[in-house]
Amino acid sequence: MLTTWIIFFGYGSLALGTPIPPTLQSPLRPASVPSYVLDYAPLVYLHSEDPYRPADIGSQVQNTRPEVDYTFIPGQYDLNNLDQLNLFGELYLTSKVDIITNPGWLKGVTPNSCGTTESAVTCAVITTDHGNGLVDAFYMYFYAYNWGGLVAQISSWNVGNHVGDWEHNMIRFQNGVPIAVWFSQHNNGQAFDYKALQKCGDRPIVYSANGSHANYAISGEHEHTIPNLNLPINGILMDFTDDGPLWDPITSAYFYSFDISTSTFTEYNSSYPTAWLNFLGHWGDKQYPDSDPREASNIFAGIEARYSDGPTGPIDKQLHRANVCPDNGNPCLIRETLTA
User: Fold this and answer.
1) Which residues belong to the signal peptide in this entry (predicted)?
2) For a 10 Å CB count at each end of the chain, is N or C smaller?
């Protein structure tokens, strides 16, 4: 088990973003969802210039086709039977059209004035009960496409793009009281004491980075070359966040519980599809070979792909984790002041 460290560093006072609209739509509470899971749910600022908004989870399946080693697997699949594809090995939901044409479905749905992605279920909320009043609530955010950004901000040095993008916040509760919040970012992320975060009422404010959708606790520039540390400087690998459209993920979400002992999901509403949560494959294309025309002009070929593998889904995000942070070899630092 990782040791949790508490650290005390930051960049002084931070200006809050634009005021949160008072018209946020109240979610219809599914039966049996703990009230605190909704009362403390994150609110997400999308980047103002990001063309790739949150996307409908089911539409991703309809706009892709299952492939293993670039070979099509025939059949009809949707969120109700997607887990049947696990029988075929390492599988990729591959775009039906060449993604360099930038098809419209990759762009997702911009939230309306109430923060809702209309006609699109763009989030899955999953609760994990550890016993003794300790509950984790995972807020899984889905985007149809991840734009990886630029190395050293050079326009021709674009790497790390992929079809499909799962990001998340996790809030740890003790007896219904929020303790700490995890922010997923690239290969790792950051954890904060709940009290340190900017909030609208009781709800933490999250900033989604332009293109990459990594989640941050403050707006601005984030240099993320070093795991566990995002510096507010212009560097090699940069994320950018600002107060763009406000997204209230729980207004367009499925809700589930996850049983640690059996590794099974149970829907809070019988109308929700559940089989897709057991899908072990990738929610996007397999990384293209270096010889593929889409990689031909990549000067980082063999080091970093321009188009990398699509991500795995919520089941692969350590829903059973012991600490607030996932167990990935990095120390679990719970920050008590806001940092980049």
Assistant:
1) 1-17
2) N
Phi, psi of 252 (to 5 degrees): -140, 70
Give residue limits of the domains in the chain. 39-173+252-324
DSSP symbol at 2: P
Give the three-state DSSP class for 84: helix
For every residue of 20-58, DSSP letters joined together read PPTTPPPP---TT--HHHHHT--EEEPPTT-S--B--HH
Dist. CA 139–CA 141, nearest whole Å: 6
Q: Say how far apart CA 178 and CA 145 lie, in whole Å.
A: 31
CA distances from 249 to 99, 139, 208, 321 (A): 26, 8, 12, 23
The pair of structure tokens assigned to 323 is 């600490």
15-19, 101-105, 127-131: least confidently modelled range: 15-19
Say how many C-beta atoms besides its own lie within 10 A of residue 299's C-beta.
12
